[in-house]
Amino acid sequence: MTSAPRIASLVPSLTELLVALGLREHIVARTGFCIHPADAVREIAKVGGTKDVNLAKLRRLAPTHVLVNVDENRLATVDALRAWPAAERPQIIVTHPCDPQDNLALVDRLLEVFGAIAGVAEHAAALRDALAHELALTRPADHTGQNVLYLIWRDPWMTVARDTYISRMLARVNWHTLPAVAGGAAGAARYPTLRGDEPWLASVQQLLLSSEPYAFSDAHLSEAQALCPRARVRLVDGELISWYGPRAVAGLRYLRELAA
After folding, report:
1. 34 near 43, Cβ under 8 Å?
2. Among residues 257, 258, 237, which one has the least CA distance to residue 247?
3. Structural domains of the chain in order of their starting residue, each with its CATH number
């Protein structure tokens, strides 16, 4: 790396990860959803949302690197970045962690790009050790298997396919999301919509209402219970379950507590 990087993160989890790696001073842009850690990101310029990036503003900030995610950002955004003139075109770092184990490779990927910067290698090693420790402690064999419906949206109800990061996080405590379908590498099928009359709803044992992207609250408990009359319905911290990077350390501990 010949000069100091100017990094734009279009993904909340990745913004938090950059800060954890000691790269705060190099971040020049974030989305409005990149809110952690609050003190560190407060002064970083916002360039819209994950799905509606203000490309003109981002271009004025002249990033040398832009971090994106397959699920959270639009392909059209990446294509627009690739169409910038060569002199302005940033290195685009595409991420797609689909399993908590992938956090290790994610840290390694950013270390590969930014590891020459003072302190990054040390921060990466510490984070990698913490992740590996929690992964080793979070084993399916230590928990009773449960059928789970994890809701991320209401009107319509939306859940997660089994090849998503969320589903595979839950599988670490032997909780298996329904429907038992894969969503593929990208696209809407990764987050199926429910009619509400699917026969398998009767077999759900744990019904989890995420705090994001839809802000489920106590007001939705009875409505959700009607979907799955036999299930235990709970509000859960969506950030701890769905954010990869450093939040996965606490997230894995949180899952073990939920499954206890």
Report:
1. no
2. 237
3. 7-136 (3.40.50.1980), 140-259 (3.40.50.1980)
HSE at residue 154, side-chain half, CA atoms within 13 A, is 15
> Does the structure show a pLDDT above 70 at 253?
yes
Q: What tokens does 134 get?
A: 């929690």
**pLDDT (tens digit per residue) in 76-92:** 999 999 999 999 999 99
Residue that is written with structure tokens 């996965």 in the block:
248
**Closest residue by Cα to residue 23 from 133, 154, 116:** 116
Residue entry with tokens 């949302």: 49
SS (H, E, C) the chain: CCCCCCEEECCHHHHHHHHHCCCHHHEEEECCCCCCCHHHHCCCCECECCCCECHHHHHHCCCCEEEEECCCCCHHHHHHHHCCCCCCCCEEEEECCCCCCHHHHHHHHHHHHHCCCCCHHHHHHHHHHHHHHHHHHCCHHHCCCEEEEEECECCCCECCCCCCHHHHHHHCCCEEECCCCCCCCCCHHHCCECCCCCHHHHHCCEEEEECCCCCCCHHHHHHHHHHCCCCEEEEECHHHHHCCCCHHHHHHHHHHHHHC
CA 229-230-232 angle, 5° bins:
100
What's the mean pLDDT in 150-179?
98
Q: Is the pTM of this model over 0.85?
A: yes
Instruction: Determine the distance from the C-alpha atom of residue 159 to the mean position of all C-alpha atoms in its chain, rounded to a whole number.
Output: 15
